[in-house]
Structure prediction request, 382 residues.
Amino acid sequence: MCAISVKKMLKVELKTHRHRYPFYAGRGLLSLSGHILSRHLPPRSLLVVSDEVVSRLYAEEFLRGLREQGFQPFLYTVKEGEGSKSLANAARLYNAALEAGLDRNSAVTALGGGVAGDLAGFVASTYLRGVPFVQVPTTLLAMVDSSVGGKVAVNHPLGKNLIGTFYQPSLILADLKTLETLPRREYISGLAELLKYGIIRDVKLFTRLEQFLPKHLEEVKSPVGSFASSDNMLKYITRAVMIKGEVVFRDEKESGERRILNFGHTFAHALEAASDFQYYLHGEAVAVGMAMAARLSHLLGLLDARSTERITGLIKRFHVPPPPSGLKVEEVMRAFYYDKKKQGEHPVFILARELGDPFVYKDPPAHLVTAVLEAYLHKGIL
Ligand SMILES: NC(=O)c1ccc[n+]([C@@H]2O[C@H](COP(=O)([O-])OP(=O)(O)OC[C@H]3O[C@@H](n4cnc5c(N)ncnc54)[C@H](O)[C@@H]3O)[C@@H](O)[C@H]2O)c1
Prediction:
């Protein structure tokens, strides 16, 4: 085994009941892609799925690293953005894989954010009834959330992520250097998901973020630069991945505990849907949704004022865009009923009794949900 010379690389072992896989995180891992992949997969043909932005920035270095160790990568690039997570693109990828002669000994790799990851994973899980899948996340959101836990999907005209499977990767390789080129909004979107783990599972992480984020958020530029690849960030990312890994281990298919990972997401999905998915980045909507979930928890007498203030106070520092002008409370309320996570007719929320203690709450009184929405939509209160 070749010695890998990176200053700092952390490894988290993830597992489900039938599968184990590592999450590697460090700076400068892309050029070592071949070394790291070959620990888990013998050299083989690989379909590498990326988007145009990421491909321009990182494909050359990544593919070189693979070729050096005898892999034969075929790069397929899609347009950046949510529109690429489509069945039409999945079909194009099957064609590309067949034309390149990829067989069951081949693998599919995602190089990019959650869009590339979800699309490539869906193709990996269905091509020839499933070939090995490697995630190489390049956004913070993908590193702490979408690359971990095996949910892969494409969108349908009737809704996001409606066509998908659970399919765990063989490994995840996160090079924090790639975060340095992220636009500020994309980075902040990922920070929101990171903060979520502190709120739902780790008060210590929340407290560290409470100390670290306010100054960091004031200083962060676009593109983000070396802030995003600091040692602190490496620790936070691996901690978040451990938390998600533990939750997914206990409930891979989201029949119970995994739902806590959706803290803030019922509000977020409704806000995104009611604004036609055009206004917020997903993580921005999650940031708003988490503040609303905290407020709703407080109105229900569950979360004390101090914890509510700690959560909402920190989220205010994210400076997410103000509410979309003209968006009505009724439009958001209507969107709750199209949420995939609802059970029967009742919207399901993940609320908190205290920091680190989330739980599922079905169908809270509509007037309290309305009050939280009104405060945000009419007065911008988070
Ligand atoms: N599978 C899951 O469990 C899960 C969880 C959360 C979100 N998701 C999905 O993830 C998607 C969102 O992921 P995302 O936020 O990573 O979006 P994304 O993949 O669209 O990436 C965001 C933008 O950043 C650009 N980008 C990516 N890496 C970059 C880099 N290093 N430098 C500069 N620009 C870069 C991309 O080109 C894109 O324009 C959604 O489709 C969502 O449904 C899936």
Q: What stands out?
A: The domain at 9-181 is CATH 3.40.50.1970 (Rossmann fold).
